User: Fold this.
Amino acid sequence: MPPTTVPPTTVPPTTVPPAVAAPTTTLVPAGGPTAEQWAALRHCESGGRYDALSPTGNYRGAYQFSRATWDWVAGVVNPSLVGVDPAAAAAADQDAQALALYDMSGPSPWPWCGVHLQ
Assistant:
């Protein structure tokens, strides 16, 4: 009896199935503010500095979080960040916290600079 053969696949070799596609590195969800809009917000809030402090020291980091707001967001999305000084947190953590806050409250936490996210 001759050996059976399996027909060759019809999927072109350059096609990558969606489940195997490389992940994106951006924190910006589809339909939300663009990376450029987030950069404009950071520039407006802190000159783009992740270690920035407001003149009073009440607002901290690139997105000028109050400690209370930072801890509230962290308690919801990343409890390991509760109690961390926003200005001392890693840039990626600040970005993730800002995105989470935006997802919860829209641009309103940034009353002046939030216009950059619209």
In short: The radius of gyration is 21 Å. DSSP finds three helices and no strands in the chain.
